[in-house]
Amino acid sequence: MSQVEGIVRFRDGAAAVVAPESVVEESALLDQYGKDHSFVSGKSPSLVVFPETKEHVQAIVRLANQFMVPLTPVSSGTPRFNGDAVPCHGGVVVDFGKMKRILKIDPKNRYAMFEAGVTYGELVPELRKQGLRLDMPLLPPVSKSVLASRLEREPVLIPKYQYDYVDPLLTLEVVYGTGDDFRTGSASGPGTLETLKADKVNPWGPGSIDFFRFVSGAQGTMGLVTWIVTKTEVLPSMQKLYFIPLHDSAALAAPLQRLLRQRVVDECLALDNVYLASILAESRLSDFDGLRRSLPAWTVIACVAGYQRRPEERVAIQERYLIDICRDLGLQPSLHLPGAEGKEHNLLRLLSEPWTGTPYWKLRRKGSCRDLFFLSPLSRVPEFVSLVAGMISHSRYPADDVGCYIQPMVQGRGCHCEFNLPCDETDPKAMDALRELFMTASETLVANGAFFSRPYGPWADMVYRQDGEEVKALKRLKAIFDPNNILNPGKVCF
Predict the structure, then answer these.
(1) Which residue has the higher pLDDT, 192 or 148?
(2) What b/e string do you get for 94-132 counting C-beta neighbours within 10 Å, with b at 16 or more?
(3) How would residue 367 be classed by pLDDT, with cut points 50, 70 and 90?
(4) What domains are there in the chain, each with its CATH number?
(5) Which of 22, 90, 162, 337 has the fewest CB atoms below 10 angstroms from its CB?
């Protein structure tokens, strides 16, 4: 059976399962799924299907197996990055955008349970009503699926609450490539969600295998996740944002390590002047240029917070520790942002909410961008920053355009390093220069020990060609959970 014939039969079968208007063939919509802000070469799908229940997802997967139609899962709205949701072989996009139920918010046990289509813009306000908040990535799009963010292990801003790299993801429900559904951890007991007595928050198991890890970071190649349970945190009643200016990336590791080792602060991150100016600037380019020139080369941002009980006393104690640590290191923390006085309150709000403006902040300067990111020990951050800076200085890409973001993870035991590279996709010469830099830098970083734990697009070959035994093991798992390779083929090492 040809793929065209398979698609037609799949379409007819899907229309009998979901509402007819949930099977879409409009070319204008299909083209939106065929590309994103990455170097992944994709192909527009032939169909988009919008399931609304787990049973819809199971039926879609079984139809795909019957007619050998590739499925690519999508749960976030635009803008999209990294290429994980771009179909490599066309086929059908399964868009979870209609699965919008927030199934439970539990203030006592501090967790939230919700479906795949729930976005940061929808979940954050509902949690706030219950006195809770999410440990969020830095300024995610308002249209970003929280489930996708958790599955892809996007770095969060409060490393002291993170105990491994999958945290704060807890339990989940997944439909494997066979069409079988499965619940992980303490949600795996018999019965429906309504009758299940377990608390659904213990991620480990069932048995001695942590099944939730099979789908974490898998880019939808192992299964389609329908809902998750994630940790939430108590909403602070009092917060103070401190800024520690630094003149060199070599000085980054010491304050971050000390602050995190003593668990002094909540939000804790470091931004260079390009990245920070990109966030704070208004839409005019002149705002960005002025801010970049006035800001220090690097700024460590640290937040101290008080909660329901004696918040002033808690904040005062944390402030004393923070000031003492900085004094020991010869640093001067301030409640005012050097070079951008008056914007501190705005930044505190930005750290606790998704980005609601248009265009998205990473796209304001040139219309598009590419992100280069990896994991590293904090101690090696200055080395990697210098390595990337050296490669940029010898490339055709303008060095002044590159911003850098350093996010400690897992209580400081690791670190997310991100370089943001703005670009104008209508300029072929500029895009060629950027692609050359992106590929060369990626290869060099891999060779020097940078850990690409989320191997999107061209990174997959760079990562997996180094470890043939790992690839063999993953392919054996793939044969069990998705024997016909219908789930997002072409991604990871499949």
Answers:
(1) 148
(2) bbbbbbeebeebbeeebbbbbbbbbbbbbbbeebeeeeb
(3) very high
(4) 3-95 (3.30.43.10), 105-234 (3.30.465.10), 236-345 (3.40.462.10), 366-454 (3.30.70.2750)
(5) 22
